[in-house]
Amino acid sequence: AQRRFYTTLIGLFAVAAIFLAAAGIHGTVSYFVASRVRELGIRMALGAGSGGIVRLVVRRAARLALWGVGLGLVGVRASTSTVESLVYGIGPIDALTLVGGCLLLAGVALAAAALPALRAARVPP
After folding, report:
1. What sign has the CA pseudo-torsion 25, 39, 51, 121?
2. CB of 87 within 8 A of CB of 7?
3. Is 2 exposed, middle or buried (CB count within 10 Å of its CB: 0-12, 13-18, 19+)?
4. pLDDT tens sequence for the chain (125 residues)
5. pTM of this prediction?
6. Distance, C-alpha 34 to centroid of its chain
7. What's the angle, vertex CA 66, arms to CA 32 and CA 63, rounded to 5?
């Protein structure tokens, strides 16, 4: 019963962390777009297409996600011994779980960057 409680608690914290990551990436990318509206408008006036602007913004979000994945993997390595006693059915460093988490973060980053990227693509030249 206690193990199930801890597993549920860790799951809830994981969901909260995903929402916090999405909010943080969305806020950072939105700030990036808002602070560079003039530059984005000049790029559009000089011939950059909407796709190029979207790629610029999404690349920024991808860079943030890569930093998050890297720091997360360092955190996993550092906390393996503590978490090992709380989880059931997986090893201390399970490749499928790590890859799944990295892919989940990448998806969350792209989803969080979608709205600011589309907003940036509509900046008037």
Report:
1. positive
2. yes
3. exposed
4. 888 898 899 899 989 999 998 898 889 889 988 898 898 889 989 998 999 999 998 998 888 889 988 998 898 888 877 777 766 666 667 788 888 888 988 898 888 888 898 888 888 88
5. 0.72
6. 19
7. 30
Q: What is the DSSP letter of 93?
A: S
Apex 105 CA angle, 103 and 107, nearest 5:
70
Question: What is the identity of the amino acid at 106?
Answer: A
DSSP state, residue 27:
H
In angstroms, rounded to a whole number, what is the distance separating the alpha carbons of residues 96 and 93?
Answer: 9
Helix (H, G, I), strand (E, B) or coil at 106: helix
Structure-token pair, residue 15: 């969901």
